[in-house]
Amino acid sequence: MKYRATLIVLGLLMLVGWQWPHDTLQADPLALSRMNQTKHTKLAGESWKRLPNRDRSHSTNHTHQDVDSTLDVDSTLNKTNQRLQTINQDSLATSEEWPLSTLYAAPDTGAPQRPPHLKTQAKTNHPPYVDPRYYQQLQQELASWILQEGTMVNYSIAVDGLFIDPEGDSLSYRVEFNSQALKLFFSNQLTISGSPDRQENPLMLTILATDNRDELDSEEHRWVAAHFQLSDVKPLPAISEQLLNQPLYRIHTTRVIAGQRYPFYVLQCEIFELKQGHVWYAASSDRQRCPQLNEMNIVATYQQQDEQIHLHFPSDKTATWRFRYRYSSNYYPGMQLYQVTSNENGPEETYSLFDQRIGAEARLNVHTGQYHYQGLNFDYLMLNEQQQYYPIGLFNYIYNVRNAQPNYYQPADSDLNVFHPTKSLFCRDVEPYWAYASLIGPTHYNVPLISESGDRAGNYPPLCGEYLRSQTRTALYFDHEFTAQDIPLDGKIYTYILYPRPEYAHLLEKFAINLIYHAPID
After folding, report:
1. Omega prior to 202 cis, within 30 of 0
2. Which of the 8 DSSP states describes residue 242?
3. pTM of the model
4. 24 falls in which pLDDT band (50, 70, 90)?
5. Contact at 8 Å (CB) between 80 and 29?
6. Count of C-beta atoms within a 10 Å radius of residue 321
7. How far apart (Å, rounded) are the C-alpha atoms in residues 518 and 408?
8. If you placed Cys at 205, which of 228, 348, 350, 458 could pair as Cys (CB 3.0 to 4.6 Å)?
9. Thinking of the domain 129-229, which architecture would CATH place it in?
């Protein structure tokens, strides 16, 4: 009877396309049905599919009770055929692909066996990798940085495109740098700031990223690295030689330009070039531009002495330039600024000399007023308690507030904003060094618009306040007050000057810019 039942099973299974394996003649019918399901699934889509949840739970969660070893073949065949049809229909209906493990036949124990478990492989997480094109761009940019010993630098690069994660996971970054002289700041960009040291050559920068995916395998929590080499730190030439053989632009205050006298200080651009023992010079006749190179004439001779340059004029007048510091602009790529103290006009004053015309002319042409806080950022060297220089940014504007708020208590608004490029700055950091600030120009009532903050003698500093410039950085401002008649005029130039305290005039620059006012845009 059992032999006859077996023949019936073989015949029915051959009708549904099953090729009987030689080593599984006594296989469990349910296991055979699952093997046949595998074949049908492959033929239907040519890719392995994940079984529906109801079949998977059946094969893993249900518990079968022991039954008599005698098998009701007819009943078993009916159940088997029903199950084959159900599984194949479900398999064709599902669209979720899933890698499938090897199926196996149950051993012949003479009793029904528990259906085999469907073994699956977990989805693999791939670590991030370096984008070769972005890497090449960064390497070229880093190699182009000008690094000179004793010269302050402040460079930034964006690294968010350096790594690509195949699954789109968010990334964490780590940075390694072999310099003690240069400091790293990492927020939206990677910033390298400080004064490089030639003894630290070669400078190596490593940027690492991870996708923080360690829930599957601890080995997948690993960092992927991109290695860069910066340009070598070069030695500086002799201090005074840095000021030679190149045009240098300077902004100074005066009451007379091209024979026209002004009732208040205005700004004028000058150009110097010291070469082969002669001083070439020109001063602009226009309040908004610098002179051309072909306008220069020889006006004096010079001699070098360590960090000083002595100027000798035909009228037996002499003057001395004392070199203080050199640094790179944060706002005009490739431009160098030289901090120089001069006694050409009597008491010592400190100036910025620009090696590019654009740096000087930007200070002469700050367009403002069309909207609130319209203006430009400028470089400035500040002192700390140890009398060491560090770079900050300055920004100012003029705006007619009553255009938006007719009942505002004053017609104009103007504040000098003072901020550090990478960290917080507070009033206590700058108040000991600056005396007062002034904003001067024509008004609607033909009287000078004069707003001052602080004290000329340095008895108290400009009125200072603090604000959050970003989520992590505090900045400050010097406030200016205005009277009812202080209404700025469209198209007019207003002179803003920030004066250091007298005892710091030989170290800190007298900062001056032109604010060119425009009526608000409605």
Report:
1. yes
2. G
3. 0.61
4. very low
5. yes
6. 23
7. 19
8. 228
9. Sandwich (2.60)
Strands (E), 5-49: none
pLDDT of residue 167: 87
Give the contacts of 421 (CB within 8 A, at least 6 positions apart): 154, 191, 193, 330, 391, 392, 393
Q: Provide Rg for the chain, Cα atoms.
A: 40
Q: How would you class 140 by CB atoms within 10 Å of its CB: exposed for 0-12, middle for 13-18, buried for 19 or more? A: exposed
In the block, tokens 């890719």 appear at 47
Please name which of 326, 308, 368, 309 lies closest in space to residue 520, comparing C-alpha atoms.
368
Listed in sequence order, the residues at least 6 apart from 379 whose beta carbon sits closer than 8 Å to its beta carbon are 327, 329, 330, 331, 337, 352, 391, 393
Q: Which residue has the higher pLDDT, 146 or 91?
A: 146
The b/e string for 65-74 (b: 16+ C-beta within 10 A; e otherwise) is: eeeeeebebe
Q: Are 466 and 454 in contact (CB under 8 A)?
A: no
From residue 177, how far is each of 143, 193, 330, 367 by CA, in Å?
A: 15, 12, 21, 41
The per-residue b/e assignment along 409-429, b for 16 or more CB within 10 angstroms, e otherwise, is ebbbbbbbbbbbbbebbebeb
Separation between Cα atoms, residue 64 and residue 183, nearest integer Å: 68
Question: What one-letter code names the amino acid at 125?
Answer: N
**Per-residue pLDDT tens digits for 127-165:** 899 999 999 999 999 998 989 887 788 899 999 899 999
Helix (H) or strand (E) holding 427: helix 427-430
> Residues 184-239: pLDDT tens digits?
988 778 999 888 988 898 999 999 999 877 654 554 457 899 999 999 998 877 76
Cβ-contact 87, 33 below 8 angstroms? yes
Distance, in Å, from the CA atom of 38 to the CA atom of 167, rounded to the nearest integer, reads: 30
Boundaries of every domain in the chain: 2-93, 129-229, 244-337, 365-522
Partner residues linked to 433 by β-bridges: none
The one-letter code for the residue type at 244 is L
Distances (CA, A) of 415 to 18, 196, 359, 383, 475: 87, 34, 22, 21, 12
What distance in Å separates the CA atoms of residue 317 and residue 372, rounded to the nearest whole number?
A: 47
Residue 321 CA to residue 317 CA, distance in Å, equals: 14
User: Closest Cα partner for 279 from 253, 250, 249, 311?
Assistant: 311
Distance in angstroms (rounded) separating the CA atoms of residues 256 and 476? 34
Residue 390 dihedral angles phi and psi, to the nearest 5°? -150, 150
Residue type, 134: Y
Alpha-carbon distance 479 to 462, whole Å?
7
Residues sharing a CB contact under 8 Å with residue 189, sequence separation 6 or more, in sequence order: 156, 157, 158, 159
- Secondary structure class of 190 (helix, strand, coil): strand
Which two tokens mark 364?
Answer: 């002469």
Number of other residues whose CB lies within 10 A of the CB of residue 363: 20
pLDDT in tens, 469-502: 998 899 999 999 888 888 899 999 999 999 999 9
